[in-house]
Design brief:
The chain is an alpha/beta fold. The chain has 8 helices and 7 strands, in the order ααβαβαββαβααββα. The chain has a single domain, classed as 3-Layer(aba) Sandwich (Rossmann fold). Strands 3-2-1-4-5-7-6 form a 7-stranded mixed sheet, with helices on both faces. It is globular and about 40 Å long. The protein starts with a helix and ends in a 7-residue tail after the last helix.
C-alpha cells in the first residue's frame, strides 16, 4: 500500500487503531531508561505518545499526512510533545542516532522491508536498542487477521538476518501470541518480535577486559 492508500485508510475522525500502546512495546521497554526514541511508520502515533508520557524524547515518522494529523491531535489532548515527521521511511534518513528505534507492523515487500530494517538498525546509538514487531509468516495459516500477502510477512529469523553486520547484538528473537477478540472468543494472532542492542563503548571495553590475556614472551 502506498501513501494515498494509507491516507484513505486513516480517513475519518475515529482512530483506526486503539489509543493504547502496543502490548509488546510496554513489555519490551519496561527495563529501559528513557532517552531519545524514533517510532518508524508511526501511524496515528499511539506508541510514540505513550513513550513521551514516560519521559522519552519522541520522534514519529510516517508518510501519511492524515495519520500524522490524528497523531498531533492525540498528543495535544494528552499533553505531550512529539516531533512528527512526514516522510517515506523507505527513503528518509534520520539526522543522528536514537536510544530506541521502534519498527512496528511495517508492511512492505520483503526487499524494501529488509533494506528499511537495516537502515534503521544503523540509527541505534551506542547502548541503545532496536525493537521490531510485525505479523509473523505463520499467522497466515495458524493465526488470525493481518495482511494476507506473504511477501509483507516475516519471522524473527528474517529480521535477525536483515540487521546482521550492523553491530547490534540480538537479545530476543521469538514468535509471540497476541489475543484478538472475536465473536467466538479470543483467538491468537502470531507476531514476530526482535529486540537488539548496540553495545556501548564502555560495555565493549568491559567485555574485552574479561577476555583471557595471552602470556607475554
Amino acid at each position: 500500500m502506498e501513501r494515498e492508500d494509507w491516507d484513505l485508510k486513516y480517513a475519518g475522525d475515529e482512530l483506526l487503531w486503539r489509543a493504547e500502546p502496543n502490548r509488546f512495546l510496554v513489555e519490551a521497554t519496561g527495563d529501559l531508561r528513557p532517552g531519545s526514541v524514533l517510532d518508524v511508520a508511526c501511524g496515528e502515533g499511539r506508541n510514540a505518545i505513550w513513550l513521551a508520557e514516560r519521559g522519552w524524547r519522541a520522534t514519529g515518522v510516517d508518510f501519511s499526512a492524515v495519520a500524522l494529523a490524528k497523531a498531533r491531535r492525540l498528543a495535544a489532548g494528552r499533553g505531550v510533545e512529539v516531533d512528527w515527521v512526514e516522510a517515506d521511511v523507505r527513503t528518509w534518513a534520520p539526522d543522528g542516532q536514537f536510544d530506541l528505534v521502534v519498527l512496528f507492523y511495517l508492511q512492505l515487500p520483503s526487499s524494501e522491508r529488509r533494506a528499511v530494517q537495516r537502515a534503521f538498525a544503523e540509527a541505534v546509538a551506542p547502548g541503545g536498542h532496536l525493537l521490531v514487531v510485525g505479523h509473523d509468516m505463520e499467522n497466515l495459516t495458524a493465526g488470525i487477521g493481518g495482511p494476507q500477502d506473504p511477501d509483507v510477512l516475516f519471522d524473527a529469523a528474517d529480521v535477525v538476518s536483515s540487521v546482521e553486520g550492523s553491530g547490534l547484538v540480538v537479545e530476543r528473537a521469538v514468535q509471540v501470541r497476541r489475543p484478538v477478540a472475536t465473536d467466538a472468543g479470543d483467538v491468537d494472532a502470531l507476531d514476530a518480535l526482535v529486540r537488539a542492542v548496540r553495545p556501548s563503548d564502555q560495555s565493549r571495553m568491559a567485555a574485552e577486559d574479561k577476555q583471557p590475556r595471552g602470556a607475554s614472551s
